[in-house]
# Entry
Amino acid sequence: MGFEYIVTRENNINTWIIRHKENHTIIEESAENKDDLQRFMYAVNDSHDGVFRLMIWITYLLIVMVISYYFYQKGKKNSKDYTVIIVIALGIAIYLVFNAFIEFNTAYQSLKHYYFTLTN
# Structure
């Protein structure tokens, strides 16, 4: 993603360094930009959490798919016993991945909005 921030406090003045890839901007916190800076900070944290959640649920989906394939190859005649459980587990995994992606995308769009608001 490439978004990050560093906050330093000197003489009761907060100075923010916000970065996106190779670009960085130094901003002194004021009453006008304080809310946007805090929202940027929350958006960065939410996007990092979103990436982590997305990776976890994709891993869960892959594990369920591997287990499904194993049971499918193990015995096709006994597959009816496992089919309902596998379909439910796959459905849950797909839902969780989709939900995590939507949450990540929302956080990322907010992050871009606040970054461009602060740098322009």
